[in-house]
Amino acid sequence: MFNFCEDVYLFSSVHNDAAMTSSTSYLNPNYLVSAQILQRCEWTPGATGHILTDKITDEPLIGIAVVHVFDFRLQCSPSGSFFNKDYGTLDKAKYQFIGGRPHNANGFNEDFARTHTLLNNIQNLIAKTQHKKDMLPDGQSIRFARSTFEKREIAVPDSPTASRKTVYLEDIESETGPSQSASTEMKKKLEMDEETANWPIADEYREDLEPIIAHYKAVPLCIYDEEKQFIEPQNVNNALRNALVEVHFTVNHTYLAKSTPQSDSFRANIKQIMILKKGKPTTTIYMSDPRCGPVMTTAHHTPPPPEIPLAKKLHVDEAAKKKGKDKADERPLTPETLGISFHFSK
């Protein structure tokens, strides 16, 4: 049986250094490069659609891929994909990033092509339409996502925005009273969790956070750096930018029958991210203040050809004259070339 917490770390620990030399270090059967995975998995009903399931464990299949994170639509900050309330509420926000083919990663670039092909084949097992969207934006990338907030089992009454319909502890206790352990557990559920209370969201979104925290809790990404240290939510975007990462994820499918045109939506749900190699910071030689003057480069255009030495130049000129004379000697013999003219008298 695939034990996620144990096996993924065993899988990852093999290659902090070794993985950068060869993709053969990836021996985990859930590494999505082998077509045999198609024989191990099946689509089963779940949530609002279908979940890719491991036939052996009867649990959601945890796939593993190695990708290069693009600095494009990278939305893994504490506010996720939320932009403003004109496009929906904060509780619908998602962490998401797009991964592509690793470059100069000693084998992982070839693996990515196999991973992408395998995911496309997995989609084709259940897709009802030709419009497959969201997970594979194109032939060169994979979109990974996960909800930033999760709905609470019971609303938190000490939230400033808890509704009148909030369930209080005394409302659900029986007349004889609950057991002590049940009471303690319920009290924990009715308290604002520390993660959400201290969620490091930008000030501009603070007013959007307060209305939802009674019914939703913030859930940070399980993401770890090269030393296996947890990365705090406010630092995730910078840590992922242009990094080489190992992503653990499940796959969901939803058939959108009411969309125009009808389509199949797929999602690679992030479970864990391991950074194998951090991205290089971008640099520029240009000044942030334009009044500081231009940046002068060593050459603005193609340099002129070097001057020909005088002795060589005389030799070239002499050769050119000789060549011209030879061409003149090759002209046909005619009265004109011989300098003969004829005069006829009437």
SSE arrangement:
Layout: H1 4-13, H2 37-40, E1 41-46, E2 49-54, E3 63-69, E4 94-100, H3 108-124, E5 132-133, E6 141-147, E7 149-151, H4 169-172, H5 180-189, H6 194-197, H7 206-209, E8 216-218, E9 223-224, H8 236-240, E10 244-256, E11 263-277, H9 310-329, H10 335-338
Parallel strand pairs: 5-11, 6-11, 9-11
Antiparallel strand pairs: 1-2, 2-10, 3-4, 3-10, 4-6, 7-8, 10-11
Structure in a nutshell:
The chain has 346 residues and is of the alpha+beta class. It is 24% helix and 21% strand. It starts with a helix and ends in an 8-residue tail after the last helix.
Describe it for me?
The strands form two sheets. A five-stranded mixed barrel has the order 3-4-6-11-10. Strands 7-8 form a two-stranded antiparallel ribbon. Residues 1-25 have low confidence and may be disordered. 26% of the residues are buried. By secondary structure, the chain is an alpha+beta fold. It has helices spanning 4-13, 37-40, 108-124, 169-172, 180-189, 194-197, 206-209, 236-240, 310-329, 335-338, and strands at residues 41-46, 49-54, 63-69, 94-100, 132-133, 141-147, 149-151, 216-218, 223-224, 244-256, 263-277. It is elongated, with a radius of gyration of 35 Å.
Discrete helix count: 10
What proportion of the residues is helical, as a percent range?
10-25%
Structural class: alpha+beta
Strand order of the largest sheet: 3-4-6-11-10
Helix and strand pattern? HHEEEEHEEEHHHHEEHEEHH
